[in-house]
Amino acid sequence: MRATLIKLCSCLGLLLIAFSSLAAIEVHEFDNDVDRKRYQSFVEEMRCPKCQNQNLAGTNSAIAMDLRRELVFMIKEGKSDKEIVDFMVERYGEFILYRPRLNSSTLLLWGAPVFLLIAGIILLLVIVRKRRTLDLASGESGLSAEEQARLTDLLNNTQDSTSHTNKQEKQ
């Protein structure tokens, strides 16, 4: 009895797994390859209004399915890309576009990275120049007196041996 129940549950589990993969496929028929490519481009470039950071192609939410159906209908109706995008933006706002258009409301969005990059470079240059002028004004090299004396001796010895070697080569 128990063995039969285990076999029955196993078979039911396998059937559920097999049929669940068939339920997730959404197929749209287009008249030509150009319309299919337009549809694919739209579902990859438009964001799902409900899902966080997912495009229409990557989600199975109810609103994404509705939007995909609407896209198919509008493409088959012969609407241009601009008409489709304008309709979606009018209905859902600029949020639906992964790459929002450049206008007065999105100017900050597009300009902020450039502004921050330029401000960062200017700040870096100011800091480097201040440090350089402070180091030159203080005359300190960052070495202790003992280390500075040792460095001077090494440099003098190197210069003496170099000049001595040069004199020998000339003779």
From TrEMBL:
Q: Which InterPro entries match?
A: C-type_cytochrome_biogenesis, CcmH/CycL/Ccl2/NrfF_N, CcmH/CycL/NrfF/Ccl2_sf
UniProt keyword annotation of Lipid biosynthesis present? no
Instruction: Give TM segment ranges.
Output: 107-128
Q: Which GO terms describe its cellular component?
A: plasma membrane
Acetylation in keyword set: no
Annotated signal sequence range: 1-23
- Keywords, alphabetical: Cytochrome c-type biogenesis, Heme, Iron, Membrane, Metal-binding, Signal, Transmembrane, Transmembrane helix
Any Pfam family hit: CcmH
Reading the lineage from the top rank, the first entry is Bacteria
- Domain (CcmH/CycL/Ccl2/NrfF N-terminal): residue spans on this chain: 14-155
A molecular function (GO) term: metal ion binding
In its UniProt record, which GO terms are filed under biological process? cytochrome complex assembly
The entry assigns this protein to a family as follows:
Belongs to the CcmH/CycL/Ccl2/NrfF family.
UniProt function note: Possible subunit of a heme lyase.
- Please name the PANTHER family in this protein's record: CYTOCHROME C-TYPE BIOGENESIS PROTEIN CCMH
Q: What is this protein called?
A: Cytochrome c-type biogenesis protein
Name the source organism.
Cellvibrio mixtus
